[in-house]
Amino acid sequence: MPPLVEEIPPLMVLTEASATRLIFRFRNRLWGVATLVGGLALVGTTAWFELSHNLWSWQFAIIYLFGLLLLYSSAYSFTADQSLTVDGGDRVVHFHKSNLYGRADWERPGNQFKEIRVSRARSIQRPGVARNWVITLIGGDGLQLFLGENEFGSMSRAGALALAERVGRLAGINVHADSL
Questions:
Q1: In this predicted structure, what is the pLDDT of residue 2?
Q2: Does residue 122 share a domain with residue 43?
Q3: What is the DSSP string of 119-174?
Q4: Which long-range contacts (CB under 8 A, 24 or more apart) does 119-127 make?
């Protein structure tokens, strides 16, 4: 039976690079602050409006729920520690994750990965329209880890391909890029 809620690991950004090693990290503080500010502003503004205008509606409950989800996201971000190291000397990938859902540490040789896929991000609001590129490291067991140049992925196809090819070259993983 599949889990009720499946965790999707957050995007990791290149933080350190050398000729034989790349280190990607989830920048938890940035996302934690962003969602904390948004959540507090949403809950606070809604409460102020509700109290100052002596109103209550079921729509407020939806707004409060969304604000609480943002605050939960802050708690996740502030407690998360996630990194991926690509070691070209040993041609292995080291992964570390510690967050609200638990801890995972593993090391796999590059040949245990199916591919690195570079594709356009998909938009729910406007299908087919995307402004950035996503780099996905796909394990032989279906595991997917997301890498990028910045917190939004990669802003150009050339940048995404260059980064994916560096990872692929160091770990011995094939890179597959979607066409424009």
A1: 64
A2: no
A3: EEPP-SSSTT--SSEEEEEEETTS-EEEEESBTTBBSSHHHHHHHHHHHHHHHT--
A4: 119/177, 119/178, 120/178, 121/153
Q: Is 50 in the same domain as 135?
A: no
Q: Which two structure tokens, joined as six digits, stand for 22? A: 């790349």
Q: Would residue 3 count as lying in a domain?
A: no
Q: Is residue 105 domain-shared with residue 22, that is, in the same domain?
A: yes
pTM of the model: 0.80
DSSP structural state of residue 109: E
Examine residue 7 and state whether it is found in any structural domain, yes or no. no
Range of the domain at 147: 12-26+80-177
Q: Is the dihedral of CA 96, 101, 102, 104 positive or negative?
A: negative
Alpha-carbon gap, residue 77 to 32, rounded angstroms: 5
- Other Cβ atoms closer than 10 A to 40: 14
- Reported as a single tens digit per residue, the pLDDT across 113-166 is 999 999 887 655 555 555 688 899 999 998 999 998 877 777 788 889 999 999
**67: three-class secondary structure by DSSP:** helix
* Domain identity same for 132 and 65: no
The answer on 167 and 99 residing in a single domain is yes
All residues at 6 or more sequence positions from 47 whose CB lies less than 8 Å from its CB, including other chains: none
Report the sign of the C-alpha dihedral through residues 123, 128, 132, 134, in that order. Answer: positive
